[in-house]
Amino acid sequence: MKRLAIALVVVISACAGILGFTPAGPKAFPHRKHVLAGVPCTRCHANVAHDDGQTLHLPSEASCVECHTKPHDTRPCFACHVASAALGELVEARDHLRFDHARHAKADCVSCHIGISEGDERLRPPMATCFRCHAHDAARDARTCATCHRDLADSQTLPQSHLAHDGDWMREHGTRAASSGDSCQACHRDSFCAECHGVTVAVLPATAHFADPFAPSVHRAGFTARHALEARADPGKCTTCHQPERCAECHLARGVAGDGQRSPHPAGWVGLSASDNAHGRAARRDPTSCASCHDGAGQALCIGCHKVGAIGGSPHPAGWSSRVPLGALPCRLCHPIGSRP
Amino acid sequence: MKTLAATASVVGVLAAGARADPYALTANALATTASPAGLVTVSTHADPTSNVSVEAVMWTGGGGDLIGDRPGDVLVMVMRARTADGLASGKLGRFVAMLGALRPIQIDGAAARVRLPHRFAIETYGGVPVIPDLAASRAWDWVVGGRISREVGDAGSIGLAYLQQRDYGRLASEEVGVDGGAALGKRDDLAAALAYDVANPGLAEARITATHRRGDLKTELFATYRAASHILPATSLFTVLGDIPAELVGVTATWRAAPRLDVVADLAIRHADGSPIDGPAVAQPLALSSATDPVAGSTAPEAFVRAKLRLDDRGASALGCELRRDGVGAAGWTGASGSARIALSSAFAASTELELVVPDHDRGLGAVWPWGLVALSYNRGGWQAAAAVEASASPSDRRRIDALVQLGRTWSTR
Q1: Nearest-CA neighbor of B42 among B51, B32, B29?
Q2: Which of A160, B113, B224, B331 is most exposed, with minimal Cβ within 10 Å?
Q3: How far is B198 from chain A (nearest CA, A)?
Q4: A188, A169 contact by CB (below 8 A)
Q5: CB A154 within 8 A of CB A91
Q6: What is residue B389's three-state secondary structure?
Q7: What is the DSSP letter of B281?
Q8: B73 to chain A: which residues are within 8 Å by CB?
Q9: Which helix (H) or strand (E) holds B326?
């Protein structure tokens, strides 16, 4: 056990850079050192008050060499002295936030850029910083995100609240969206939902995004091979999104449907004795599986045998009841109007 | 094709009027040796003003099994509008309509949402359910639904929803749904949804999730109940067969083990109701054996462990792996998968995936079902391109190799 612990420590230490425990790549810009030296923020970030929607407000190379007259390297300063992740955040903020530095000029820079001296990870203030001055509750309730956010659907910003999309979000999203569906629409366009839930979708999302192995999808990887097993374990899961006809379309095309040469039903599927009849129990177990091929006009096959007085008898299980009027489909297929239940 | 052309012209007009950013038009072509053989998708979205937006996605293709005779279709074509204060909003066109706990349904129609005093809100939609056939007659097919909800606390709400769908004038679906969700302090939250089938009385679906966070660890307790027969249209004869649901109860833990390493572990118990079948197997594609089917009435554990390691701060390169145990009884299987994405440059990336599935009962269709994919992608300056080779062995194909190629271009005002 002791050896295992030592080995674990060695492995983690060796991989500390990869795991992100120790910063890798460019060093964080030493903001603290500059502030302590008495350099005001606007001396380097000279044009910060002019938001033209293009600039990232990074200092120019010239502003560095103003003081650092003998650079220690011939490469540009920002090739090393800024973290790439921080740059990504700045680009994200420029493209997807409506923010005007000029209107905030009365405040000290560090009143929003809290912790800037601790590293580049805090270049962009967290959203909670805004709420110290700006009321947010009304905007959140009215979903008027566009007051501050621009084109959230294309941004890479993820929610940090109870709607964080981690864990098994694919399973959870329906439950969460049920009570807050309108907040989903703040970030997701209609096509995002329709990619899976639309009946007119042309290809599965996993196929459309085949080059991204981390794109979320319930149909990833070898889904075609295992879909029959998944459908049996949770009947109805497929029809949450798909019409039953979707199954028939594919099975017909591949020749694994009932009217193809390769019937999916085993020998003895339908017989004259109860011991030689599996289709009834199978249909009760997973009616959507049957419906995928036999629904619509095909379901008339059932009532050829299953009606009172016929060889199949009543299809209803013991204790079954329904408040559906007999005159409505599917009741009237067996119970003509005027007949007794 | 006329419908497609008309749709394209409408989208063009809407997009042309969109002067404010962002405005984007994307054309994407996908070709694959598997179905569909060729597909062209055109999508566009625009925000003409801060309170009006339009979006459309349509496709056309040919040669594939799934597309069949369909020359193309419209996935989404919608115009959204809202008042400046956010009190009222609405949309018109083709979209996926959702109401609380009720199942989503794609419609051609309209939807609206109005906020009322005392934190109440009303949502409603109505229209024609979409079917994948541009030429089909939809006379007397319609669906209407509504939901009333009230916000509770700082981040919570409860709602009551109802929908009725009719196909050719006949009742196809009628459901009542109850939903609720709330953040209980900074660390805990709860969400639940329940749908009741009125047309064929019985519980159609129920889901509940409770979450607790502590530092880098998030724990979720969840339970789901789903009755297959209640998800069928009420006009289906199969709804009279009874109600045999599947249930799932479990816990999921999400842990940021290191700044760049996320681990998700899930353990659940699944129960498939009903009694075991002592006859030939349940319907399965190519399931020609006569083994008994112990799926019905079975209870079995399900679990997976998934890890993702980002190789850089932005996650452009990453490694992932997963071990999974799934299914019940004869439908059980065990699987392992690995995936990797390596950014070769700011524009090029290589990715690969490998999955191995071992079914508990192979039925002579292969003891191991492997699947693998290798892809190379390019993304720069609005251009996206990707090519991949996919290889697999499955119950339907002893060996199969497919190629996929994708080319896309996005024009944007940004």
Answers
A1: B29
A2: A160
A3: 8
A4: no
A5: no
A6: strand
A7: P
A8: 200, 202
A9: strand B318-326
Rounded distance between C-alpha atoms, residue B10 and residue B77, angstroms? 9
Task: Answer for the pair B244, B274: CB distance below 8 angstroms, yes or no.
Answer: yes
Nearest to A284 among B73, B224, B241 (CB): B241
Contact (Cβ atoms closer than 8 angstroms) between residue B384 and residue A246: no
How many DSSP H helices and E strands does chain B contain?
A: 1, 22
Q: Give the residue from chain A lying closest to B371, CA to CA.
A: A222
**CA nearest to B36, candidates B76, B5, B2, B71:** B71
Place of tokens 């090029």: B348
3-state secondary structure of B318: strand
**What are the Cα distances from residue A16, in Å, to A6, A121, A234, B260, B311?**
15, 18, 42, 10, 12
**In terms of Cα–Cα distance, which of A233, A245, A226, A224 is closest to A285?**
A233
Selection from A247, A276, A244 nearest residue A264 by Cα: A247
Cβ contact A264–B332 (<8 Å): no
pLDDT values of chain A reduced to their tens digit, one per residue, 341 residues: 788 888 888 877 777 777 777 766 666 678 888 888 888 888 888 777 777 777 778 888 888 888 888 777 777 777 777 766 677 778 888 888 888 888 887 778 888 887 777 666 667 788 888 888 888 777 777 777 888 888 788 777 777 766 778 888 888 888 888 877 788 888 888 998 888 888 888 887 788 888 888 887 777 778 878 887 877 777 667 766 666 666 666 666 666 654 444 566 766 677 666 666 677 777 776 676 777 667 655 566 777 777 767 777 777 766 666 666 666 666 767 776 555 54
A172 and B76 within 8 Å at the Cβ level: the answer is no
Residue B238 DSSP code? G
Pairwise CA distance, residues A77 & A178, whole Å: 50
Q: Which residue among B288, B331, B404 sits closest to A233, beta carbon to beta carbon?
A: B331
Cβ-defined contact of B149 to A179 (cutoff 8 Å): yes
CA atoms within 13 A on the CB side of B362: 12
Determine the Cα–Cα distance for residues B264 and B304; give it in Å rounded to an integer.
Answer: 8
Cβ contact, residue pair B252, A167, below 8 Å: yes
What's the token pair of residue A133? 């001055």
Q: In this structure, are residues B348 and A254 in contact, taking their beta carbons and an 8 Å threshold?
A: no
Nearest to B222 by CA among B278, B280, B267, B176: B267
Q: In this complex, which of A229, A234, A249 lies closest to B246 when CB atoms are compared?
A: A234
Between A and B, how many residue pairs show a Cβ–Cβ distance under 8 A? 443
Are B297 and B277 in contact by the 8 Å Cβ rule? The answer is no
Q: Taking phi first (over 0 means left), then psi (-120 to 50 degrees means alpha), and beta for anything else, what does residue B166 get?
A: beta
What distance, in Å, lies between the first and last C-alpha atoms of chain A? 72
What's A104's DSSP letter? G
